[in-house]
Write a sequence for this structure.
């Protein structure tokens, strides 16, 4: 397999970084090819703007998705976006590795999605969900959070974790056509012992060695909706 | 009322910007005080990092939330964060005005939340949800999206809009203690006529003039959970 790990943490010694390093080691040892986009190290620009387009389809009024599509087709979109799209094109499996900030990804990773999931390649027209541009590729979230496991669930204080992550799991990855694997969550990380952290790394390595055995998450199929995207019932 | 509008759009002529301008006009005409943080115009830095702290509690290992709390208390946190926190402190109503990017806020606004919702002031320890630091203040999302209204709902292709927005509505605003008003959504904006856009602006103005009549969204109360945050049942 070819695996792209997109990693976002501001502290190189963090446990989130250790998860990334574990993934590189485990996947490489299993004979897979691994590339890493370390967004903080790259000082990745997360702000989608007209500056991403050297040439503009409409120089007077910027519609980001439209300029993205045209700029990607013509090769005039910003070089950092082109490079990241090429990495995603290359990979079979995309791993997003990050600390939960406000029940979501940190802004630098949100901006990676905003800028790199380009219209025309990742989605467009009726090409989304199971018709999305990335169909055939798998995606996995691996993340750390401060909360404990019992704080997530139907009756728990924060509700279901997968519901809280819906904009990423469904609204971004599944929307773009990725087969989305169950996320790997490292709970309570700032407060646990070194032994617990070591155990989490072992669990994560086990998970990475069993990717083919995982049941992917379920999302809508365009087959169930009509041309105007009403449910067929 | 004192109203802070945090606005994020890369195109000054956009309809999202027109919503912001409408809010300024309507609220000012009604005698309210209005301030605007125009994140693109400010070139707001959305990337939470160790660079936000002139002095570090631990210079060898950065835990962002910990340094945030200490840096905010000591006044050594980055000046742009201090200024934005002061604006939120000042306001009675916070409006986040943005285009939906990947079923969420654009990265520049995610980073405003990441950096400005400082530990110790917005939340901390058992101070979250109805005990959050911003209790007594109201918050409203106003946003534009490409999808049509029928694409959101229990049986719709994207599911419930409020579920898709849960990380912002519940995981950020309600978590920090804000009373969260029902969001104002402008659907299908890139494709509708000027007449439709004008109608949306009229509806939005009406909404802003009736803020006191709106029923806020419901979220968990810490009263329903024990000291370890298990449901009391």
């Amino acid at each position: 397999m070819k695996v792209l790990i997109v990693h976002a943490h501001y502290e190189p010694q963090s446990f989130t970084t250790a998860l990334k390093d574990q993934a590189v080691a485990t996947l490489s040892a299993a004979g897979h090819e691994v590339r890493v986009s370390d967004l903080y190290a790259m000082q990745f620009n997360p702000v989608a703007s007209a500056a991403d387009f050297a040439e503009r389809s409409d120089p007077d009024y910027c519609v980001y998705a439209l300029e993205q599509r045209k700029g990607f087709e013509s090769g005039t979109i910003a070089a950092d976006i082109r490079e990241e799209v090429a990495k995603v094109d290359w990979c079979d499996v995309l791993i997003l590795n990050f600390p939960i900030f406000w029940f979501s990804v940190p802004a630098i990773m949100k901006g990676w999605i905003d800028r790199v999931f380009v219209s025309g390649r990742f989605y467009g027209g009726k090409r989304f969900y199971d018709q999305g541009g990335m169909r055939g590729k798998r995606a996995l979230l691996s993340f750390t959070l401060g909360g404990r496991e019992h704080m997530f669930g139907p009756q728990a204080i924060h509700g279901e974790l997968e519901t809280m992550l819906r904009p990423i799991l469904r609204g971004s990855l599944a929307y773009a056509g990725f087969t989305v694997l169950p996320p790997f969550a490292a709970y309570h990380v700032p407060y646990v012992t070194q032994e617990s952290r070591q155990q989490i790394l072992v669990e994560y390595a086990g998970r990475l060695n069993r990717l083919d055995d995982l049941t992917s998450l379920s999302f809508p199929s365009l087959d169930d909706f009509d041309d105007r995207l009403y449910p067929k019932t």
